[in-house]
Amino acid sequence: DGLQKQRDLEAAAKVYDEAWALSEAVGPSAEAEQAAAGRGVASVRFALANAAAKAGDYKAADAHISRALKVDPNNTLLKNFKRENDARVADLVGKTPSETARLMREIISGR
Question: Full-prediction pTM beyond 0.85?
């Protein structure tokens, strides 16, 4: 089921992020581990970014793809996704309420 898959991706992202942080802390002696963790971060964050974009949550998509690009800044697939997502966000400016307006509406409505 899609929700279960999403939870698995979120859990995997957390594990890969932690592995990446640990490999950075260890330094050069963990180069192979850092490369593996980096591939995991990029792959899982890209999948999460795709899922978020398909759901129309371009802000979450940006957060995931930006995280992936931090560990793999030269990845053409990630850079292309980021560029496309940025274009989608720019296209929505003036067509959807800002985050501030959305929060104000929630406050006013008591949610």
Answer: no
Structure letter (DSSP) for residue 93: B
Burial class (CB in 10 A: 0-12, 13-18, 19+), 59: exposed
Task: Find how far residue 45's CA is from the centre of its chain.
Answer: 5
Render pLDDT for 5-42 as a digit per residue (tens, 0 to 9).
Answer: 667 899 999 989 999 999 989 888 888 888 999 999 99
In contact, 71 and 41? CB cutoff 8 Å:
yes
With 70 as the cut, is the pLDDT of residue 105 above it?
A: yes
Given a cut of 60, is residue 66 above it in pLDDT?
yes
All residues at 6 or more sequence positions from 36 whose CB lies less than 8 Å from its CB, including other chains: 19
Q: How many CB atoms lie within 10 A of CB 65?
A: 29
**Helices and strands of the chain, counted as H and E runs:** 5, 0
Q: How far apart are CA 90 and CA 50, in angstroms?
A: 17
The letter for the amino acid at 86 is D
